[in-house]
Amino acid sequence: MIMRKTVAIVALALALGAGTASASSATEGRNIGKLSIGYQGLDLNTGSGEFSISGVANGLSSRYWINNEVGIEGNLYLQSASRKYPGSYDDERSVLAGTIKGMYAPVVKENSRFYVGLEAGLGRVHYEQNYVDPEDFHLNESYTNTLWLVRPLVGAEYNFAGIPELGVNFEVGYLFSGYDDSSDGSPSDTYDMSGISIGAGVHYFF
What we know:
206 residues
C-alpha cells in the first residue's frame, strides 16, 4: 500500500511538470557532468514513543547531474540527541542512515532547475540508557534498531550567476519511514514515523 502511494505521488508530480518540459528542454542547465560535495539536511518528522526520532538529520552529500534533466544524489545522514535527569537517569539516541536519490528536472533554466525525485535508504537507530538509583544500583541498556525510509519529493536547485558552481536546493515531500524495535528480545514491532518532510542543502560542483 505504501509503495503504491509513493508511485502515485511521483507519477502525479511528473505529470504536472511534463507540460512545461518542452518549453525549457532547449535551455542548458548548470554543472552537467560535474561531481559535487556538500551538505543536505532532512527533516525526519516524528516517531512513536517517549523518546522518538524527530528533528533534522544533517548529511554529507554528493549530487551529480548526468544530463540536463537527470541527476542522482547520495547522502549519509547523522542525528543524535540526549536527555539527562538530575541525579539518576540519562539516555542517548543516535541515527545513522544512507540514502540514494534520483531526480528528474522537467523545467530547466540557465541558473535553476525544478525537479521531482525519489529518495530511499536504510540505517540504524542506536539507543543507550543509564540508570542509577539512590542505593547505587546501576542499570545500563543499549540496543540498535533498523531504520528504513522512502521519500517522493519535489524540489528546486538554484545556482548564483556569479558563482555558478554553487548550487542551493530546497525540497518538500512525504516521508514513508519506520524502524523496528527489538529491545526486549521479542518479535520486532515496527514504529511508523511517516509524514510531510522538508529538506535543504548546498553543493559545490567541481
